[in-house]
Design a protein that fits this description.
alpha/beta, Arc Repressor Mutant, subunit A, D-Maltodextrin-Binding Protein, domain 2, 2 domains
Length: about 325
């Protein structure tokens, strides 16, 4: 049944029950003349008169009575279904599918999920580790996490933590063997561990600034990976220089497993965000989780004290030169 046909039957039912075009039109928010045209169109399409009209009264014909008797229960049932569907929208339950890189899952997503499920035990949460961008709609992902700079503009993105500063690091064994770069340009003489997303033809440049001085380094590394945990593990193993967030490098720097480099220079900061497709209607579970992300993002994320476990992550190489 087309939407217009359903609207015509609703109009007929209102007029037949009220026995008045004026009262039915007032209830429906249309003019009596417009309502009369709707009923006339229904009768013309069906090829039968449904209402007897006089200047003083309106009454269903025999065919109209037969039709009214059968469509009113169906419409009441339809209204009941819509009401129940609306109530389901307000119930915080069901399933929620999340997607994020492995290190973001451990550092940000898992703490949010822990807080969220304590307040919403009826929501079943699935966390999918994904190091490359996915089609959220195609893969059935409700909310994904990642770095804001990589989020498509057609997504809604909200902060899931503070902005993170980035530094260049290498292992002590690598520095002892290859020397310490004094200037970003010196990186051309070093082995670099770069990170890039699937589909990128080349890694993102490393843009260093020092006051007004800017050094935009087009990195061409000895090792390219699509997982920041693998980049960290590779640096710890002495394979070269890499760039990642200071907050997640500090445990290794404190233990002298990694050495910070080019400390007079700064790199653009990163912001972890949650993002999801623009849509008119989100489920109650999605809305509740987004609110939890907003609260957690306002308070700031709390990195784990030890990220050395990422050294055991299998090396998913994008390319090796």
């Amino acid at each position: 049944m087309r939407g217009s046909q359903f609207a015509e039957l609703q109009a007929f039912a209102h007029v037949a029950e009220k026995r008045s075009f004026t009262q039915a039109a007032l209830m429906m928010g249309v003019s009596p003349s417009a309502l009369s045209q709707i009923i006339r169109g229904l009768e013309d399409r069906m090829g039968i008169r449904l209402l007897n009209r006089t200047t003083r009264s309106v009454a269903p014909t025999e065919a109209g009575e037969w039709l009214l008797e059968r469509i009113v229960p169906l419409m009441e049932q339809f209204d009941d279904v819509l009401s129940k569907a609306t109530n389901l929208r307000e119930m915080v339950g069901g399933k929620l599918r999340l997607c994020a890189p492995q290190i973001v899952v451990a550092q940000v997503v898992q703490p949010i999920v822990t807080i969220f499920q304590r307040s919403n035990p009826d929501v079943s949460v699935e966390i999918v580790c994904c190091e490359t961008p996915v089609d959220l709609v195609k893969e059935g992902v409700d909310i994904a996490f990642g770095m804001r700079q990589f989020v498509d503009r057609d997504m809604i993105a909200i902060s899931a933590g503070p902005t993170l500063s980035r530094i260049a690091v290498a292992s002590l064994s690598y520095i002892q063997k290859n020397g310490t770069p004094a200037h970003p340009a010196d990186l051309a003489n070093h082995r670099l561990i770069t990170w890039r997303q699937a589909g990128q033809q080349k890694p993102d440049n490393w843009c260093f600034t020092n006051g007004e001085a800017v050094e935009d380094i087009a990195v061409s590394g000895a090792l390219a990976v699509n997982d920041c945990g693998v980049a960290l593990a590779s640096a710890l193993d002495g394979l070269g220089v890499t760039v990642w967030t200071r907050e997640w490098m500090e445990p290794h720097i404190d233990r002298r497993l990694l050495v910070p480099l080019l400390q007079d220079w700064t790199l653009p900061k990163l912001e972890i965000c949650a993002y999801y497709p623009r849509q008119r209607h989100a489920t109650a579970a999605q809305r509740a989780f987004i609110e939890a992300v907003r609260t957690f993002g306002a308070e700031g994320c709390h990195p784990l004290q030890d990220t050395r476990s990422y050294a055991s992550v299998p090396r998913r190489l994008v390319g090796v030169k």
